[in-house]
Specification:
The protein is mostly helical. It has helices at about 1-10, 10-40, 45-50, 55-70, 75-80, 90-105, 115-140, 155-170, 180-185, 185-220. Helix 6 packs across helix 10.
Length: about 220
């Protein structure tokens, strides 16, 4: 197993995939930031806060950082955390939820055009699919721990708390299904619980699939 781990570390294909993920991730995030600044309906400071209020943006930044970390020699603690094998399934689950929610809930009410359409498809479609493929590639390359880390759920829970607190003061909610002003807290809590349940289902599914694949590939 030690030899397999070394092979995974030096596999040039993984380095190329990391580079592709890095380019796609930062291009989409920076591109969206430029667009939201150009088309802002509020002041710069408020627009920047709104930009970082989207789970889509935060999760794509997380993905971009994940693919950036291998190219940084002096990595701080957060980058080391991202590079742990147990981090990939939760990150994959979160970006898949970004894609699923967009396709099921938001695509019908949002019709971007031009460069905004390209950025949107990157953030909500191409990058989620790329990360899913990367996750599968890593499973086939070498075995690694796919146990579900429930502490990663602190990320979406912390995000929800931030949005509700900020929304109570600012009146701004980034997603219609989190808009307390129009739906009320009861409906928002139900919507949030449903999304969290789907997120957990995706997370556990990835873990189970990963264990099954690892057993089939690496059982002597």
């Amino acid at each position: 197993m030690r030899m397999l781990a070394i092979k995974k570390k030096h596999d040039p294909r993984q380095r190329y995939l990391n580079l592709i993920g890095l380019i796609l991730g930062w291009f989409a995030v920076v591109g969206q930031f430029i667009l939201i600044i150009q088309n802002r309906e509020a002041g710069i400071a408020e627009t920047v806060l709104r930009f970082f209020s989207f789970f889509t943006i935060l999760t794509n930044i997380l993905v971009a950082l994940y693919f950036t970390a291998p190219f940084i020699k002096l990595r701080p603690t957060f980058f080391n955390l991202l590079q742990k094998d147990s981090s990939l399934p939760p990150i994959t689950a979160f970006i898949l939820i970004v894609g699923l929610v967009y396709q099921v809930v938001l695509r019908a009410i949002w019709h971007p055009t031009g460069i905004q359409l390209i950025i949107d498809e990157l953030l909500h479609s191409l990058i989620p699919l790329f990360v899913l493929g990367y996750w599968y590639f890593r499973l086939k390359t070498a075995p690694f721990d796919t146990r579900v880390r429930l502490r990663w759920m602190l990320y979406p829970m912390g995000y929800l708390g931030f949005i509700l607190v900020r929304g109570a003061y600012s009146g701004y909610y980034p997603y219609p299904f989190l808009n307390v002003s129009s739906l009320g807290y009861a409906k928002v809590w139900i919507n949030s619980a449903l999304i969290c349940l789907v997120m957990l289902a995706v997370l556990y599914s990835l873990a189970l699939i990963g264990k099954k694949i690892n057993r089939s590939h690496f059982t002597p």
